[in-house]
Amino acid sequence: MWQTGAPRGLAPRTRSEKGPPADSRGATPRSAPRPSGRVNRKGGSVSWRTVPTFAAGVLATVLAALLVRCRGAARADSPLTNRMLRWWAAVWLRAAGARVTVDGLGCLTSAAPCVIVSNHQSSLDPIVYLRTLPLSLRVLAMRELFRIPLLGPALRTIGMIEVDRASPDVSTIDRAAARDLAAGHSLLAFPEGRISPDGAIGEFKDGAFIIAVASQVPVVPVAIEGTRRIWPPGRAAIHGGQVRVVAGSPLPTSGLTEHDVARLRDQARDVICSARRDLVTAMSARDAHHEQGSGHTVRGYQAASLPRRARGTWRQRVRAGHG
Fold first, then answer.
1. pLDDT digit string (tens) for 41-50?
2. DSSP secondary structure of 95-163
3. Domains assigned to the chain
4. DSSP string spanning 27-45?
5. pTM score, whole prediction
6. CA angle at residue 229 from 226 to 230, to 5 degrees?
């Protein structure tokens, strides 16, 4: 989650690199290949978006972190904090050229807190959710982020939850989660525990579902597709593109106990896997101009705006190509 980094500098082009090379007879090829907009490097390529995205994102991070620290923990639960998080996420998404379409927002209209669980494809995933979901979100984030100067203290101040993936402190995580839920925040968790290396959805861990059952709050399964192509895992290369998000119906936990955690976990995973298959099919079948239909753009993302009776189930809407 939230793996940030800056690309290394690009080597300047020398005079000997100018122009197409001559062949063995001293002749110059008829035409040189056109630049592709990417700089090929050992181990991958860097698009023109990479440096501007990290520059804008890092600047927004510094400004937001300073504001959080100045306001202090006493004001961390205010609406201004949520607006600031959405602004911060919007800067990253706009700079990255991410066009996000969301479906199923009607499932998230309740003001009651919940636990959002999702597949994990890219470091961009939590940024997408902070921008687009109409919730006061707090994220279970990896410990490495909390070790970054200025950013780490800001994350703690606003109630983000630190998770040591190698050796998680379950009691500390549970207390922090209970505090955030009691304050009216919803939690965002990625039950796979790390970004998928190949895009496939891995096995889910129990942690997020134990929290939901212990607090008796619903679990909302959400599927995401497209972020992997914009910000590939393990690489500092940014490429603009389309992102699709589908929120499923909340899974109630009222009356459930620790013995029901495994069933709840598997149910949520099945919903997310099914939704992602539909998203992959829909995104492969539709042209870019079709992505502009059946929705309205709201500050960098597109939210479905169908009449409630015409919406059907969230899975039917994806198969029909709405949103």
1. 444 456 788 9
2. HHTEEEEEE-GGGG---S--EEEE----TTHHHHHHHHSSS-EEEEEEHHHHTSTTHHHHHHHHT-EEE
3. 46-320 (3.40.1130)
4. PPPS-PPPP-SEEEETTEE
5. 0.76
6. 90
